[in-house]
Structure formats: C-alpha cells, structure tokens
Amino acid sequence: MGYDTVKYYLENIPNKIKIIVSSNSNLNMNSDDKKKHQEILIDNFPVPKTFTKCFSTVQIPFFSNWRYKTQVWVKNN
C-alpha cells in the first residue's frame, strides 16, 4: 500500500478498535517494478495519537536482515 492508503485506513479506524497490530518494512527499499513503488517504513506510519506503542520488534526468523518489523499499539483510555 502507498502512504496515502495507509494514512486513510489509520485516520478512519472505528472508535471501538482498541489495538492496532502492524507489520511492515523496516528498511528503505524500492520495488523492481515499473512503478518504482517505495515501501513505507513502519516507523513512519501515521498512527493516531490516541494510540500508544507498547511493543516493537524485528520479525523472526527474518532478524538476520532486519527486513520486517511488527508493532503493537494500544488505544489510550
């Protein structure tokens, strides 16, 4: 997904959602396709300020290249 799509989904999270789990690129990389899609770094996701990050780690077994990261965000009360 492109940045605008990620932003749209995060800005339109239903009120009843209490946890966000995201898993995405941890490295700046461009795809090899003709569109030259650039991946969005997970740390640049525009998560609403109503959520607090409570967990972040590089995914196993891919830790050797640090390619993907998973984060968990919990809604503030």
Low confidence ranges: none
Question: So what's the overall shape?
Answer: flat
- Sheet with most strands: strand arrangement: 1-3-2
Radius of gyration based on Cα positions = 14 Å
Q: What's the structural domain tally?
A: 1
**N-C termini distance:** 29 Å
Q: How many separate helices?
A: 1
Order of helices and strands: HEEE
Quote the average pLDDT: 83
Structural commentary:
With 77 residues, this protein is mainly beta. It contains one helix and three strands; from the N terminus they run αβββ. The N and C termini lie far apart (29 Å).
Provide a compact summary of the structure.
With 77 residues, this protein is mainly β. Helices cover 12% and strands 30% of the residues.
Write the layout of secondary structure elements.
Elements: H1 3-11, E1 19-25, E2 51-58, E3 68-75
Antiparallel strand pairs: 1-3, 2-3
Short key terms for the protein model shown above:
1 helix; mainly beta; flat; about 80 residues; single chain; about 30% strand; 3-stranded antiparallel β-sheet; about 10% helix
